[in-house]
Amino acid sequence: MKFPDAEKIMDVIRDCAEQVVMPRWRNLSDDQIWRKENNSVVTEADIESEDFLKKRLLDLFPGSTTVGEEETEHDPSILDRLAGDAPVWVIDPVDGTSNFARGKDRFAMLLALCYRGEIIGGWLAAPALEQFIWGMKGEGAFRGSERLSTTGKSGVPSVLSGSLGARIRRIEGMRENFGEIVNHACCGAEYIDIALGNLDFAHYRRVKPWDHCAGDLVVREAGGYTGELMSGEPYRPVTPPADGILISCSEAAFEGVAGILKPAVAAL
């Protein structure tokens, strides 16, 4: 199957950022911000940008379908499309919505193309930081014409910087295992940092396809190593692992970090 040109897809994301997302950043009224049933924040920008992307992408690639974060909130059966035969656009229109709603610049737009349960392409944008990166399976990862590469560091945890969730960060002595621990409350921003070589690893226990498909593909194409924390098996959006996934700058880093996280996560 012939897939759309990756740079044309990035142009669609740029258009959405310019026309829908950025005009609403730091410009939302209280009635344009609310909470979903799961208590997570959503804004008018999330809804309108997902609609914008769905229309443009379906027009660009006839026969494809979508799995959007906001549409799936109202109809969880939409996730079944990931196991079907049609190409699927997996959309997180504004990742890090709490940051976006507070006017912080650490938010992202995430888009992936999946086919028969496999991730084919990924696009990540942090428009407030003017970062736009993408990757296609087997073709590498790019920022414009620049080919991306992770740090490729060794597996010595004490020299690695990474992101961990709150429950793991609070474990006594956990921070001392690593060089630096951060959490930007936006996994898309952290995936971008890993792909650009600014961060070495990240672990996520909450594994929704719209949060992880794009970043998983791009980090792997940039030379990183990703997989299920406990088994090390590749992440597959149709069968998300219970103990989360580990994203890292190299296979050695994956093994070093996993050696510390596995017993900690198992004990939670």
Describe the protein's architecture and organization.
There is one protein chain. This protein has 268 residues and is an alpha+beta fold. The chain has two domains: 6-147, Fructose-1,6-Bisphosphatase, subunit A, domain 1 (Fructose-1,6-Bisphosphatase, Chain A, domain 1); 157-267, D-Maltodextrin-Binding Protein, domain 2 (3-Layer(aba) Sandwich). The protein is built from eight helices and 14 strands. It has helices at residues 6-24, 44-60, 69-74, 97-101, 166-169, 187-195, 209-221, 251-267, and strands at 33-35, 41-43, 65-68, 88-95, 108-115, 118-126, 131-136, 140-143, 146-147, 161-163, 180-182, 201-204, 225-228, 245-248. The strands form three sheets. A seven-stranded mixed β-sheet has the order 3-4-5-6-7-8-9, with helices on both faces. A five-stranded mixed β-sheet has the order 11-10-12-14-13, sandwiched between helices. It has a two-stranded antiparallel sheet with strand order 1-2. α1 packs antiparallel against α2 (44-60). The longest helix is centred in the first third of the chain and has 19 residues, at 6-24. The protein is globular.
Q: Encode the helix/strand succession as letters.
A: HEEHEHEHEEEEEEHEHEHEEH
Helix content: 25-40%
- Say what the CATH topology of the largest domain is: Fructose-1,6-Bisphosphatase, Chain A, domain 1
Corresponding CATH architecture of the largest domain: 2-Layer Sandwich
List keywords for this structure.
single chain, 268 residues, alpha+beta, Fructose-1,6-Bisphosphatase, Chain A, domain 1, D-Maltodextrin-Binding Protein, domain 2, 2 domains, 7-stranded mixed beta sheet, 5-stranded mixed beta sheet, 8 helices, 14 strands, 34% helix
